Amino acid sequence: MTVQRTDPHESKFQSDCELVPFPLPNRVGKIREVACKLLDRASDKAVAYYRKQISESIDAQFEKIGLPESERRRQITSFWAAVDHEMLKQSHVKNSPGGAA
Fold first, then answer.
1. Which of 35, 60, 61, 78 lies deepest, with the highest CB count within 10 Å?
2. How far apart are CA 51 and CA 57, in angstroms?
């Protein structure tokens, strides 16, 4: 990604830099929160709507900071894989004998 400064008080220059966001699959708190909320949704329609809301919110945040679309998609796909994995873990714990409720 090329960054170009347009402030008249700064010297004009071009700089090649790479924007590296904190990886979404490592945002454990967010993943657990979303997984828990999805497990509490009453219908498939409610789950689909919530997933769409979350995806659009994440995409908008990444677009705002200038992350390329391909990287935004990769991050969001990885995030949902982590959420799905967390949902399986939470479901397993709830359904296990002696597991936490």
1. 35
2. 10
Q: Where are the domains of the chain?
A: 22-95
56's tokens: 């659009």
Write out the H or E segment, with its range, that includes residue 78.
Answer: helix 69-95
Q: What are the angstrom distances between the C-alpha of 32 and each of 25, 35, 65, 78, 91?
A: 11, 5, 25, 14, 12
Q: What is the DSSP string of 8-44?
A: TTSPP-EEE----PPPGGG-HHHHHHHHHHHHH-SSH
Q: What is the pTM of this model?
A: 0.72
Measured between alpha carbons, how far is 73 from 58 in angstroms, rounded to an integer?
10
The dihedral through the CA atoms of 71, 73, 75, 77 has a sign that is negative
